[in-house]
Amino acid sequence: MKILIAVLVAVLWAAASSLAEDLLKPTTTPPPVDEVSPGDGLEAEAAFDATGVIRAIDVQQGRVTIAHGPVPALKWPAMVMPFKASRQQLAGLAVGDAVDFRFTDGEMDPRIVVIRRR
């Protein structure tokens, strides 16, 4: 009988501990990046769409040079400029390809977010 009571107490203790852990877990998750408030350190960089033609690709340096059309949101005229890009983003692209792309304008260091051949 004492063994049965000891086992029952152990089972109840384990169940209560597990329940307490579940109740103490945070119930909120961080907001999506596009719904964050300024100053919380999670701001998403604004992204801009453009079209252009690839003039140079440097996979080793992670750069692609694109002759792109105007970007009205930034008040940029058409120009030729380099963008940072990952090896995966550059895979399958070649000099002369017409592309649609989205980029962030990061302090004189724009970065490709998405790029695809037209």
Note down, in words, how this protein is organized:
The protein is an alpha+beta fold and 118 residues long. The chain has a domain at 52-117: Copper binding periplasmic protein CusF (OB fold (Dihydrolipoamide Acetyltransferase, E2P)). Helices cover 23% and strands 32% of the residues. It has two helices and five strands, in the order H-E-E-E-H-E-E. It has helices spanning 2-24, 87-90; strands at 47-58, 63-68, 79-84, 98-104, 111-117. Strand 1 and strand 2 (63-68) form a beta hairpin. The longest helix is centred in the first third of the chain and has 23 residues, at 2-24.
How would you summarize what this structure contains?
InterPro entries: CusF_Ec, CusF_sf. The protein is of the alpha+beta class and 118 residues long. It has helices spanning 2-24, 87-90; strands spanning 47-58, 63-68, 79-84, 98-104, 111-117.
